[in-house]
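> call design_seq(struct)
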């Protein structure tokens, strides 16, 4: 799932080298944190959070195959 979020985020931002994705697994629960450059935060979140919701939907659909609960969080430094 980490790679999926990373590919999506790098396609959206202007500074793909500053995209950092971390993954923490606890049993069936997986926490994915996405960090991007402050200037790219709006591109990842989108208007009214639409892009962020879309990223979460794609990851949720992909996680159905692995029977895991994946939570994607977009964090600021």
């Amino acid at each position: 799932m980490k790679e999926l979020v990373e590919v999506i985020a790098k396609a959206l931002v202007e500074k793909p080298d500053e995209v950092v994705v971390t993954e923490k697994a606890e049993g069936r629960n997986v926490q994915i944190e996405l960090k991007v450059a402050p200037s790219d935060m709006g591109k990842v979140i989108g208007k009214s959070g639409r892009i962020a919701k879309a990223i979460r939907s794609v990851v949720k659909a992909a996680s159905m195959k692995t029977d895991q609960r994946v939570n994607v969080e977009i964090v600021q430094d």
